[in-house]
Amino acid sequence: MAIGAMSGAMYDSECYAQLSLHRWMLRDGIRNESYRQALIHAVKPGDAVLDMGAGTGVLSIFAAQAGAAEVFAVERTSIAKFATKLIAENGCTDRIKVMQTDLEDANLPRKVDVIVSEWMGGLGVDENMLAPLVMARDRHLAPGGRIVPAAVTAVVAPAFVEEIAYQQNLWRSKPHGIDMSSIAASAADEAYMSQARILAEDLRAKPQAMWTHVAMTTSLQEADSPFVAKLQFVVDNPGIVSALAAWFTADMGDGTTLTNAVGAPDTHWGRMLLPLTAPVEVNEGDVINAEVHCLPSVPGSCEFSWTVQITGQATQK
């Protein structure tokens, strides 16, 4: 069985000017504490720190609390005004400089010892922030400097996701006597983030890594090129497959990881879901071939395409 789909842009970078979105992230205690501890490990007294895409400035405050002498909080959207307020209210104005500008236009007075950025989308690279991180590294990081997080790996597995299976079956059931099968087809063209509850027992095969990016060594060409993974899964947990579920695992550089993986404590990311056109029953030993493409698009956005082939099933698009 072959199921193919293509999504449009995943994110509107201007949405990051809205405090409502940042409240959602700031409520994520797992995310925040992971970054706080990583910065305690990475920042040495007297260091200069670049907070790339600083948002409300909370990571900049963490860096200052960890001992940084100077923090450059670079944020392109108007949320920088709120960051200035939050930084002042936390007594850090003398050490944190908020710069409302594009990263490419930021002129820092010195090289920095640490770059920190919460650049990850649902599977890491999907917010198209890896290339700016690499450019910031090459332009602003001093020799021997550190980057938080140190590396990010994207992971995927075939899964039963109840909300997708329910919706796809609904569109094919002629609700109210209306043929809505075209909605099912279009729904399979949309990659999206979801807080849907997915359990380890909902995965039909062992998760596999799609790609890993090490912050200190990834080249700009690699960061700005399509990300492609071709994987083969062997079903070890028979049942229904309705999507590919994807997530990331970030090496925070202090011996810990931050992840939105299935089975891990919930975070604001949820999981990235790549729907199939219809739920499919799979048996133990079935082979599932999956190909995922993530194409960097405009700032803050990527486009996705994916194909799934299940042996012994009729071809379907």
Description:
The termini are close together. The longest helix is centred in the N-terminal third of the chain and has 14 residues, at 29-42. Helix 3 (58-65) links the parallel strand 2 and strand 3. The protein has helices at 19-26, 29-42, 58-65, 79-89, 130-140, 162-171, 181-187, 220-223; strands at 2-6, 48-52, 70-75, 96-100, 112-116, 141-148, 151-159, 192-194, 208-214, 227-234, 239-251, 257-259, 271-282, 287-296, 302-310. The strands form three sheets. Strands 7, 8, 9, 11, 12 and 13 form a six-stranded antiparallel sheet that branches. Strands 4-3-2-5-6 form a five-stranded parallel sheet, sandwiched between helices. Residues 1-11 have low confidence and may be disordered. With 317 residues, the chain is an alpha/beta fold.
Largest sheet: 6 strands, antiparallel
Tell me the distance between the termini: 8 Å
Shape: elongated
> How helix-rich are the residues, as a percent range?
10-25%
Poorly predicted regions are 1-11
* SSE pattern, N- to C-terminal: EHHEHEHEEHEEHHEEHEEEEEE
Radius of gyration: 21 Å
- DSSP, total strands: 15
Classification by helices and strands: alpha/beta
* Helical stretch tally: 8
Percentage of residues in strands: 25-35%
Mean pLDDT: 92
Entry summary:
23% of the residues lie in helices and 34% in strands. By secondary structure, it is of the alpha/beta class. Mean pLDDT is 92; it is low at 1-11.
Itemize the secondary structure elements and their pairings.
Blueprint: E1 2-6, H1 19-26, H2 29-42, E2 48-52, H3 58-65, E3 70-75, H4 79-89, E4 96-100, E5 112-116, H5 130-140, E6 141-148, E7 151-159, H6 162-171, H7 181-187, E8 192-194, E9 208-214, H8 220-223, E10 227-234, E11 239-251, E12 257-259, E13 271-282, E14 287-296, E15 302-310
Parallel strand pairs: 2-3, 2-5, 3-4, 5-6
Antiparallel strand pairs: 1-15, 7-9, 7-11, 8-13, 10-14, 11-12, 11-13, 14-15
Helix pairs in contact: 2-3, 6-7
